[in-house]
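TICKET #2291
ISSUE: user wants both folds in one file
ATTACHMENT 1:
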Amino acid sequence: MVMIHRIFAGAFALIAASITVAAPLPRATPESQGISSAAVLDVVNALDRDIEGVHSVMILRHGHVIAEGWWAPYTSEFNHVLYSLSKSFTSTAVGFAVAEGKLSIDDEVLKFFPDDAPENPSNNLKAMRVRDLLTMTTGHQDEPPTSPDQMSAKSFLAQEVPHLPGTHFKYNTAATFMQSAIVQQVTGETVLEYLRSRLFEPLGIAQPVWDSNFEGINLGGYGLRVRTEEIAKFGQLYLQRGNWNGRQLLPADWIDLATSRQVSNGSNPRSDWNQGYGFQFWRSRHNAYRGDGAFGQFCIVMPDQDMVVAITSGLRDMQAVMNIVWDKLIPAAEGKRLRRNRDAHEQLQQHLASLKLPTVEGAAAPDAAAKHLNKKFSFTANEQGFEHVTIRPADGNSVTIDLRIGDRDVSYDCAHGDWRKGSGFLPGGRPGQALEEPFAACFAWANGDTLLARVTAYETPFQLRLRFTFSGEELTLESESNVAFGPTKRPNLTARTE
C-alpha cells in the first residue's frame, strides 16, 4: 500500500495547476458514434413504455452525448436527488485525499476519532480500516444509525462489530458517512467543499447540493443533488480513468482499484447486485460497473463499449432498467461509424423532446363538481397532521388545493392535462427531501364527486397522489406515494365542512 500511495501522490503532484471549468459534453448523432438512431429509440421507448417512473436518460458513446431526454416536469437544468449514487462521489473524495497524502486506505478508522471511541473498543473495531469502509466490509451485522439527526462518528463506533473487518459484506450507509467524516477530519473541509475545486469545477458541476448531519458533516452515503449531465460527466471521468480534457484529475490506479471487484457480494449470475463490490461502486454484468441510488438513480459505465448511461428515476424495479441497457443498448454498439439516417434521427429527437410523465385522466370542470369548491373541510384528528383543505377553481383548466398540514399552509396549483410548477412542502418526511421542494402538479375530475391530483417533487423521485371523494358534507382523502422507503399508501382520512 505504501508504494501505491507514493504513485498516487506523485501523479497528483503533476496536476496541481489551476483547471478551467469544463464546457458541456459534446453532442453527436448516434450513427457518428457507431449506434443506430433506431436502436437508441428502441431503448428510450422501452424506458418510456415498460418502466413507470424514469425521469431522465443520457447516453454517451466515445465521450459524446448521443441521446438525452427528460420526462416533464423534470428538465435538464434542475438537480436530482442521487441517494446512494452519492456514495461513489464520497469514495472519490477519499481517492483525492489518498492522492494528496492526507490518509491511507490502510489507516485504522479509530485513529481519526480518538474522542468518539468507546471506552474499551473491541479487537474487531480496532482492526477496522478505511479500506473496510470503502468496501462495505466493516464487520457490522446491523447497520449503525443513518438518519441525519443520529448519524455520527460516535454512533458508528458504538455499534457492535461481531465480524472481523474485511471478511463480511454488509451494505452500510453509515460506513460511507465515516468516509465523509474522515475526509473532513484530515482536510478541514466538508466533502462538498473539498470536491469543489478538484472534481465539481473541472467537470462543470455547477450547483451541487449535499445534505449534512447535525454536526455539519456531509452525509456521504446520500444527500447529494446534481444534474443528469453532471452524473454523465462523472461516469465519463471514470471511463477515462481519471483524465479530463488532457489533465489527470484523479490517479488512474485509484480508478482501477475503486471500480474493480474488491469483495464478493453474492452468487446470482443474473443479478447486478451480486457481481462484486469495489470502493463504493457496484460491479455489473457485461464487465460494466456503476454507482446507483434508491428508486433508480444510475451512473452506468461500460468500458467494453466505451459508453456511459446516466438515468434518474422514481421507480421500484431497478434491475428492469439495467436489463434494458444490457439487452437493447449493448448489442447495438458497433465498432464503426454508421451511415447517416436523417429520418430515424429526427424520429428519435422528436420522441426525446416529447417525453412526459402521465398526468391524471378525467374532466377539467364538470358541472356537478361546482358544489364542492370553495368549501373548507376539516379533518378528524390524524397522525399525518392534515387539518383542513379547500379546493378552489383558478380558471377553466386549473384548481388550487389549499391544505393545512401541521403548522404549514400549503397550496398546490394544479393544471389539467399538464404540469404546473410551484414550490412547497410535501407530506411524508423522506430522507433526502428538503422541507420546501420545487414541485409540479396536475389534476382531473374522475366524476363530479371525485378529484384526482398528482404532485411531483421534480428534484426528487417522489410523487404524491391524492384522491378526494366528496359525499354531501363529507370528504375522504386517499393519498399515496409512487415510491417510499416504507409503505407507499397512507391511511385514509375523513373531513367535514365547517
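ATTACHMENT 2:
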Amino acid sequence: MPNTLTRKKPTFPVSPDLLGYLRRYKRERDLSVTYERLRSFQEVIPLTDANGAPTLWDTVIYDGAEMRELNEALKLVYALLKVDGDLSVMSHLYVDRIDYCTFGNSTPFRIRIVNAFNDNQDYFYVKKADASRIYGLELEHLLSPNRLNFITHGSTLIEEHIIGLPGDVFIDQWLKRPELRPIRVAKELVKFNERCFVRLLGDMRSYNFVVQLTPDFDDWQVRIRAMDFDQQSYNHRKNFYLPQFFKENTELTLFCAKHLRAETANQYQREEQTLLLQRASLASERLSLLLHTMSGDSISPPEKICELRAGLAEHYGRDAYLRCESMGALIRENLESIRRNVGRPIVPELVPE
C-alpha cells in the first residue's frame, strides 16, 4: 500500500507564467470536459481486478443524457491527445468505462476508450491540475528518453496512459526470470536513478514507476519509466530523489548491486548524464523557459529548498548551489554539475537506507 508521505504534499495552482508557457507549446487547450464536470456522477460501483480482488478504483455512473454528452466530449479529448483533435479517424471509438480513485493527491478519473472494430482498448486520465505535477510531466518530456502527451484546461489536467508492468509487479513476478539478463536490469536502474536525481523527481517507489520489456533479436531490452509526477521538486532530502534508497525497491536494488561492478555502474551513470545533456541541448530554448518559469514559482517551501541545496552542494562539491533560491535553479545547477563532471558517484552506494 502506498506510503502516506505522498498525501501530504499540497496542490499548487497553475501560475500565469506557467499558463503562458503551456499556451506557447500548445499544452493548454479549450475543453468541454473538466475535472469538476466528471465529479457530477450519481452512482459508484467498486471495481475489482481479474481475480475478483478489490482495487483502489470505483466505476462511476452518470445519468443517461449526461453520459451521452460525455462520450462525445471525452472522445474529443482523446483525439486531442492522439491526433491533434482529428475526429475523422475516431468515429469508431467509444467510452467504455469511467473509473474514479479517491486515493492520493490527484484523485484521478481514468477513462477507458475502446475500438468498436477490434475491441482494442486504451486509457487516459483526468486530474486536478497541479503545477508541480505539470513541471514533472514537462521535464520528463524534455529530459528523458520518453515523450509525453498531456494537455491542460484551467484547473484540469489530461494525461495519457503510460504502458508497462508496475514496478512492484515486475519485482515480484519478473525480476529473476531466466529470460532477462540481470545486467540489463541493473544498467536500467542506474540510468533511471540518475535521471530522477538530476531532474529532481522524487518518490519513485516501485508502485510509482513501470518497467517496459521489449524483445530484441538476441535478448530482452528493459526500460524503467516514471508514471507518477506528483513529487516533482518538493521534498528537502537529497535521497528522496534516488529510487535506490526506498525500502519498496530494496529487492530490485540488491539484485542489481549483486550483478554490477562499481566501475561499470559509474560508466552507465556517466552515459546517462551525457544523454541528459544532449537532450537538454536539443531542447535548450524550451527547457530554459521552463526552468525560468519554474524558478519564479512557489512549488516548495523555502526551508525545504535550503536543506536540499545544502545536500546537493555537498554531493557535487559546488558552493554555487547555496545561491539557489528555487527548485528550478537547483535543476539548472544539477545540469551544470554533470556538464562539469563533478560530484561523487551515487550508484556504488546501491544499498537502501
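RESOLUTION: both attachments delivered.
EXTRA DETAIL ON ATTACHMENT 2: Strands lie at 43-48, 54-61, 93-101, 109-115, 121-128, 150-153, 156-160, 165-166, 209-215, 220-226.
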